[in-house]
Amino acid sequence: xxxDLLGRHRAVMPDWLALYYEEPLEITHGEGRHVWDxxxxxxxxxxxxxxxxxxxxxxxxxxxxxxxxAGRIIHSSTLxxxxxxxxxxxxxxxxxxxxxxRVFFTTSGTEANDTALLLATTHRRxxxxxxxxNSYHGRSFSAVGITGNRGWSPxxxxxxxxxxxxxxxxxxxxxxxxxDEDFIAACVEDLRDILGHTRPxxxxxxxxxxxxxxxxSGPDGLYAAFRxxxxxxxxxxxxxxxxxxxxxxxDHFWGWQAHARSGPPDILTFAKGIGNGMSIGGVVARADIMxxxxxxxxxxxxxxxxxxxxxxxxxxxxxxxxxxxxARRVGGLLVERLRAVATHVPHVRExxxxxxxxxxxxxxxxxxxxxxxxxxxxxxxxxxxxxxxxKGGGHNTTSLRIAPPLSLTVAEAEEGAAILESALRSx
Length: 427
Hints:
The protein is α/β, with parallel strands linked by helices. 37% of the residues lie in helices and 16% in strands. The protein has a seven-stranded mixed beta sheet, sandwiched between helices. Strands 1-2-3-13 form a four-stranded mixed beta sheet. It has a four-stranded antiparallel beta sheet with strand order 11-12-15-14.
């Protein structure tokens, strides 16, 4: 049955639509932190549909909210007042930390970042964007144009002029040998140098932890230091929280809060986990920025009632059960377990991350060279052992990505770590 579906998939889907595994699997249902495939195999899910199943599979509170809302009305568009949309916007505006915040809902993180770029370039009357090396911001024309990751950039054409800044990867590049303080100082000097060669950009867009790039990040305080420089020219900061938001990093509710010395970002984008699988994305910005557009706009599907009902139920569950705290506690145990394993596996260059957003970088033993074959072998072996994980990486890197639902238990973390240890030792 699965092979038949694979053949049908290949007959109608684009060649560039990637599938994991030599024998791709069809996931048919899930519960808690586990999913099942069409053959009846059960897996511990450490990737959550690419960091999207944030709380749990088939969470009763979310499925109940979706079912009840579907029985009333599923959709009406933003041309009509929408109570669930307003209620979720109120909660997100308050949680964002942005003063006088306005919220616009989209259907994905790509669309959220696209909207943020529209707002920033319109507000600043500039089409120049600063972005981080090793970054990823989506697959729309404008988002691809600012993505600093060759593996996810199918074209160099862009409506924007993009300049790339150092700092998204702490342990590689020309500043890797420096202390955290000196690393930040060098990146700030690089930023100042770039600004001396161009007209004032509209904004810097940055992921506090780079997702597709392999869960890499600069030292805490890097973007606060950048913000002080940007503020001198009125350049905006867009925090791409599509993967880091909602408490996943454990220490903070938003990734930007690790860089909070200079205040909140001007624009914040979100998606993925808030819907727990429903298509929700969005932008939070100060009112003067959000309201800078001088023509009408709507969203047909952004903020539709059924997704807003899911988002409200999911956010309530996350806050009431302190899943941020759970990510900090269980993620701390998991990262230490994986670091202990790594000392016995020559292919592991680094175990990094925070909370339940962890990366394991795979290289050829004794070198800093990427080893894609080894990473794929670990992915396959983990699946054989009953564990689903992800992959990532940018320039000459390969990383395993570990991002389970935030309700992960200590026992499940230990089980997953044991499976991953076996997979790593099998390379």
